[in-house]
Amino acid sequence: MRKSILPLILSGMLVATPALADWSLDPARSHLAFVSIKANDVAEINTFGDIQGTIDGEGQVKIALMLDSVETLIPIRNERMREILFETTNYKEAVLTAKVDPAVIAKLAVGDIAQINAEGTLSLHGQTQPMTLSLQAARVAAGTVMVASIKPLIVDAAKFGLTEGVEKLREIAGLASISKAVPVNFVITFVESPTAGQ
Q1: Cβ–Cβ under 8 Å, residues 23 and 145
Q2: Measured in Å, how far apart are the chain's first and last C-alpha atoms?
Q3: Backbone dihedral region of 14: left (phi > 0), alpha (psi from -120 to 50 degrees) or beta?
Q4: How far apart are CA 135 and CA 120, in angstroms?
């Protein structure tokens, strides 16, 4: 009799546990920017127009930047960034992945804010490097969570095989220097969608 009760208990627990939702990035309410510094102290803000992303029910985060969508506000500079630095013919996207506790997001009430620390990876230009993310998540509506970086991610060109491209850009522009490490900040909005099991 005892053997037959245990499966029933376990079955009841599974049924009682709510399925955690999947989340999709809302591009209209998401923004990522990186700051490049040239000639020692001239800072320029650059963005990407095409951002995609998800958080699944297991807390797996994936954010993809379409490198062709880089926007520097100067068309010729956009073209040079695509062709010389990112080499988008061969490398279409940069992908940031991380793992978070999905329960932390699920239990946020509207107006609540939580700090999340996560280990992740950035894949760019054929290279993958570890990244530590310090994030702030806020439930801004019943089905909407906004996630922002508390500390910028520092992307080092040398670690992603981009040093040669940076140097070519410097030569073309006739500059004394262009920074090889850039800070990246973002504010990403995710919209909740039910999992397939709900």
Answers
A1: yes
A2: 33
A3: alpha
A4: 12
Residue type, 10: L
Q: How far is CA 150 from the centre of its chain?
A: 13
Q: Which helix (H) or strand (E) holds 100?
A: none
Contact 188, 146 (CB under 8 A): yes
The three-point CA angle 167-169-175 to 5° equals 85
Which letter, b or e, does each residue of 65-78 get, where b requires 16 or more Cβ atoms within 10 Å of its Cβ? bebbebbbeeeebb
**138 vs 127: CA distance, rounded Å:** 32
| φ/ψ of residue 7, rounded to 5 | -60, -35
Contact call for residues 48 and 71 (beta carbons, < 8 A): yes
CB-based contacts of 16, cutoff 8 Å, min separation 6? none
Sign of the Cα pseudo-torsion (153, 157, 158, 160, in order): positive
Q: What is the pLDDT of residues 60-110, one digit of tens each?
A: 999 999 999 999 999 999 999 999 999 999 999 999 999 999 999 999 999
- DSSP assignment of 102-146 equals HHHHHTPPTT-EEEEEEEEEEEETTEEEEEEEEEEEEEEETTEEE
For residue 191, pLDDT beyond 70: yes
Q: Are 115 and 106 in contact (CB under 8 A)?
A: no
